[in-house]
Amino acid sequence: MNRKPTTESSSAPRRTFTAAWSANLGAAIIAAAPAKGYYMSLVGEDAQAVVAAVNQGIDAYLEACFVPERGDRCGFAGARLHCHLSPASLATLVRRLLQSDDAAATLAAGICQTLGLELV
Description:
- This protein is α+β, with helices and mostly antiparallel strands.
- It has one domain.
- Helices cover 38% and strands 18% of the residues.
- It contains four helices and five strands; from the N terminus they run βαβαββααβ.
- It has helices at residues 23-32, 44-54, 87-98, 102-114; strands spanning 15-17, 38-42, 73-77, 80-85, 117-119.
- A three-stranded antiparallel β-sheet has the order 2-4-3.
- The protein is globular and about 35 Å long.
């Protein structure tokens, strides 16, 4: 994974969740994400996993993980994907990544880790 985390403190307490999606995990992501949005920069498989999740549009949960009205922005600069996501969109993205393949779930766990949330 090649991400640029926006928040992480080595002394921050960790909250632990199972690696399966739950409403509690979603609420914890929204609470832990920066109010002004979460920035990440990705390449390769990680970038493609985010593109696939974002391109789903509205899903079975009736949620979108890219809503420009929330301040969400994603775009490529060369091979690097830069994303700035609102807390609500970030939670939806993590859910979609967890419900995808193993590589995407690993990315979701990495995102959670930068927020002080551990998936086991």
